[in-house]
Amino acid sequence: MTKTALTGKTLEEIKTIVSELGMPGFTAKQITEWLYKKRVFSLDEMTNISAKNRELLQEKYEVGRTLAVQVSESEDGTKKYLFKTGGGHFIETVYIPEEDRATLCVSSQVGCKMDCVFCMTGKQGFIAQLTTTEILNQIMSVPESDKITNLVFMGMGEPFDNTLAMLRSLEILTADYGYAWSPRRITVSTVGLIPGMKIFLEKSNCHLAVSLHSPFSDERLKLMPVEKAYPIANVLEILRKYDFSKQRRVSFEYIMFEGLNDSLRHAVQLAKMLRGIDCRVNLIRFHSIPGVDLKTASPEKMTFFRDYLNSNGVVTTIRRSRGEDILAACGMLSTVEKEKVEQAN
């Protein structure tokens, strides 16, 4: 019989399980303590729960933790972990250490429906939604789990195409019974799926990052098919209704492609369209991927672009590129493993 994972359950859900099994009510808090504070791998490790009650739990439930099946380490200290999902597929999780912080980049789906031209994950197509268990397992099961200072949902998949599982993960990460993290430690990235984004803005206080990549709708559409259903102009219209001047931030991701979106014309239009939104722009070098004839903009163009935006009131930084020697572009490593499995079958 397939057992249900307890990792990924909220306190209220575990209270229901405890009640159905006839256990004392306080057992629910004990279970969440073992799951999210002590991060155990087995029910047998929950030593302050009676053997009888552990046996009751084991009939239907398991902790649901799994370790990475592969790790690649970059010369700069970046580590890419490969996790196997319940469906036998693969997802990637990237640990990025810096002097004063350590960021974990997690996945929300196996593959992706968005089909952005520059994204290797999109080339896989959509394969499966990650469960809340599989999302949290990435965070709990990397060896550097206790060192993580910041979490970004910028790995494989579109978080707002898996909104329910993503929001449940955020609840557990920020709840007192869970990780008790500040929402300020977490950023969720989106290509601009408005329905999920609106739910997120209402139900969470975590930061938001929007993939923009061109201020011109026709150009953005060529890079990102989502522009047809959810134009960036409509995304910005919604964001203007929220206050990002206090604890919560909104940022815009802008991959710079040589000769495509790196001109003065683009910088002028970008500054114009973001006027009035308290935000930050992150300029990103393009990691080349197979079959895509795009090149990253020159350092000089990126510096010019940054300086122009900053001088026109848009706080802009150039994101440092990490882990290029270990296929750090999202989807590269899992695509290799996916092809191995397909060839073996």
- CA radius of gyration is 21 Å
Number of helices: 13
Write the CATH architecture name of the largest domain.
Alpha-Beta Barrel
Helix content: 25-40%
| Sheet with the most strands, sense and barrel status | 10 strands, mixed
Residues in β-strands, percent: 15-25%
Q: What average pLDDT do the residues reach? A: 93
Domain unit count: 2
Roughly how many Å apart are the termini? 26 Å
General form: elongated
CATH class call of the largest domain:
Alpha Beta
Q: Structural class, from helix and strand content?
A: alpha/beta
Instruction: From the 3D structure, determine the CATH topology of the largest domain.
Output: TIM Barrel
N-to-C order of helices and strands: EHHHEEEEEEHEHEHEHEHHHEHEHEH
Quaternary assembly: single chain
Contiguous low-pLDDT stretches (5 residues minimum) are none
What is the assigned CATH homologous superfamily of the largest domain? Aldolase class I
**Largest sheet, order of strands side by side?**
3-4-5-6-9-10-11-12-13-14
Q: Find the count of extended strands (DSSP E, 2+ residues).
A: 14
